[in-house]
Design goal:
The chain is α/β, with parallel strands linked by helices. The protein is built from eleven helices and eight strands. The two termini are about 15 Å apart. It binds 1,3-dihydroxyacetonephosphate. The site of 1,3-dihydroxyacetonephosphate has 14 residues, from strand 8.
Amino acid sequence: MRKKIVAGNWKMNNDSAQTEALISELLSKKPEHSVAKIVIAPSFVNLQAAVQQTHGTSIIVAAQNMHQAESGAYTGETSVGMLKGIKVNTVILGHSERRAYFGETNALLAEKVNTALSHNLTIIFCFGEELADRQGGNHFNVVESQLREGLFHISRENWSSVVLAYEPVWAIGTGETASPEQAQEMHAFIRNLIRNEIGAGVADATSILYGGSVKPDNAREIFSKPDVDGGLIGGASLKAGDFLEIVNGMQ
Ligand code: 13P
């Protein structure tokens, strides 16, 4: 069964006081009957407090990144063991901002994926084409290679720990969202690729989220598409009211 998920990627926003305030607001207003699982990804320094604050609730706290090595001389980095140690069991990997600004390649992401899976973390694996790829009609090829090179090496059993997030780079933070039809077309392509390469069971059980300028006024239509299982939300996840409206858009 595919899970419905709405995840907020807070990126480099919110200090500790703002993190606490936003979580309080989410907890107090959280819809009783939301069909979607709610995930939030605060910055590293606020993860531990976020885990404590959401303890006993259904909100899942995720990290935005982690290093591929178990430990060692990697100044400024955070390991999988450090995440596990504070009970963070979900990590976003391969976000386009990590790929673009921090040089994360498909090969590096394959290593991060292996490290995360070997510690039983759930991965929200991000990928998506740039504007030039789409304009040149190359978007399916780009997405396919990101998935083949970064993810498709994992064992069939490990797919139950993977959530996919298709985030076209041209739609992130731009206000220009993919149309519901464009999102559905790509999500169907991805599911088909998984069906052919990995198997029908995995294809039918893997959640594929859409990310890129999802807002309260467009979420419901995007989420209504048959292969869209939820969203990865940036800007609109920083306001509790907007984020919860998006969560409610998942029917
Ligand atoms: P926006 O919702 O701000 O476009 O960001 C999407 C995103 O990058 C989520 O990871």
